């Protein structure tokens, strides 16, 4: 893989991470419940961390990319889509977030599969793993707070 292609792929990932930051920040700004705001702001912060790590790679640094085993509760597979609104419930926010993280996981997994370069493949596998981890956190919150209430 050429260095230009590598740079292009990392820049694409940086844009996706910024979109996630913007998404979670906008959702946090549009909900009234403090707990929901805090959860969404925390995820925006984590996405900023991904963006910073990607930028450090473009800057020539070699950050440690730790892959961990991540369970899939599959809750996102079975809940109905929700549109973000100003009076969004915590349940709705969790559903949107789970589905967004699932889509990001699939994107990065597909990008990893398409890469011949092992360094780039590992980068996208790490990103996919991070997004799967975020999805799991949202699914656990959903399971703890929504399923148990019902």
Notes on the structure:
By secondary structure, the chain is mostly helical. It has one domain (3-147): Ferritin, CATH 1.20.1260. Helix content is 75%, strand content 0%. The chain contains 5 helices and no strands. The chain has helices at residues 3-30, 34-58, 75-78, 90-114, 118-147. Helix 1 packs antiparallel against helix 2 (34-58), helix 1 runs antiparallel to helix 4 (90-114) and helix 4 packs antiparallel against helix 5. It is globular.
The run of helices and strands is HHHHH
Please state the CA-atom Rg, rounded to the nearest Å. Answer: 16 Å
The low-pLDDT segments are none
Helix content: over 70%
Largest sheet: none
Q: Tell me the CATH architecture.
A: Up-down Bundle
CATH class: Mainly Alpha
Spatial shape = globular
């Amino acid at each position: 893989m050429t260095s230009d292609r590598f740079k292009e792929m990392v820049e694409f990932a940086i844009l996706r991470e910024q979109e996630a930051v913007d998404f979670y920040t906008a959702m946090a700004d549009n909900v009234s419940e403090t707990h929901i705001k805090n959860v969404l702001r925390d995820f925006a912060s984590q996405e900023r961390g991904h963006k910073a790590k990607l930028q450090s790679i473009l800057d020539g640094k070699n950050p440690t990319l730790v892959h961990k085993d991540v369970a899939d509760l599959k809750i996102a597979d079975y809940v109905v889509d929700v549109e973000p609104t100003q009076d969004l419930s915590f349940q709705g926010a969790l559903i949107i977030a789970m589905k967004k993280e699932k889509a990001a996981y699939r994107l990065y997994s597909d990008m990893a599969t398409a890469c011949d370069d092992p360094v780039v493949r590992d980068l996208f596998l790490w990103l996919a793993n991070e997004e799967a981890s975020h999805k799991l956190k949202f699914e656990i919150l959903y399971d703890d707070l929504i399923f148990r209430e019902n």
